[in-house]
Amino acid sequence: MLKLYYIPNTCAFIPHVALEWSGLEYTAEEVGRDTIKSPEYLALNPQGQVPLLTDGNWALRQNVAIIDYINDLAPDKGIYGVTAQHDPKARALARQWLAFANSDLHMSFKPYFYAARMVDDEKAQENLKAYASSALKNLFSLVDNILAQQDYLTGDNITIADVYIFIEAHWTKRCNIDLSAYHNLSKFYQRVSADTGVSTVLKVQGII
């Protein structure tokens, strides 16, 4: 059976939703930040991170790889969109936005989450956060512009890339980054939060 290891309100949220959408039998185990550094966990994931997916004795790490694997097991469940199974361009477009969320956006949060690890000086930490805030707003502006034309990143139907952008928009609240000027993004946030799989995982992980 598939098993997902996660820390709530992290990027492990995305494969958790993918599993909900997939209809596959799975379990999800919440782990603490101490657990992911334990010898037992490191034997499965030497990077000591989440998410981690196991399938029997086999372990897989890295978000995009995990999502791809879930999609391969349930190709007709619309993880990359309802037409992606038979439309390479639709699947590629969803993966383009997934890559954007996983790299450009996600990396831009690091100064907020790890500023103290990056520099010792408090003023330098604040400067890093200010730079990150500007970068994040620019990236979310790109998303907002796309959403002026359509409900979701790839068109009329939700994909797993939308879920990644959704949880990252949620992270801005804890970072005190004001995205209220992005009205299309705000409407998108509400649409995604209403998805059955998303709302289920929000509750399971205790995010709402």
From TrEMBL:
<dbReference type="Pfam" id="PF13409">
    <property type="entry name" value="GST_N_2"/>
</dbReference>
<dbReference type="InterPro" id="IPR036249">
    <property type="entry name" value="Thioredoxin-like_sf"/>
</dbReference>
<feature type="domain" description="GST N-terminal">
    <location>
        <begin position="1"/>
        <end position="78"/>
    </location>
</feature>
<dbReference type="InterPro" id="IPR036282">
    <property type="entry name" value="Glutathione-S-Trfase_C_sf"/>
</dbReference>
<dbReference type="InterPro" id="IPR040079">
    <property type="entry name" value="Glutathione_S-Trfase"/>
</dbReference>
<protein>
    <submittedName>
        <fullName>Glutathione binding-like protein</fullName>
    </submittedName>
</protein>
<feature type="domain" description="GST C-terminal">
    <location>
        <begin position="87"/>
        <end position="208"/>
    </location>
</feature>
<dbReference type="InterPro" id="IPR010987">
    <property type="entry name" value="Glutathione-S-Trfase_C-like"/>
</dbReference>
<dbReference type="InterPro" id="IPR004046">
    <property type="entry name" value="GST_C"/>
</dbReference>
<dbReference type="Pfam" id="PF00043">
    <property type="entry name" value="GST_C"/>
</dbReference>
<dbReference type="InterPro" id="IPR004045">
    <property type="entry name" value="Glutathione_S-Trfase_N"/>
</dbReference>
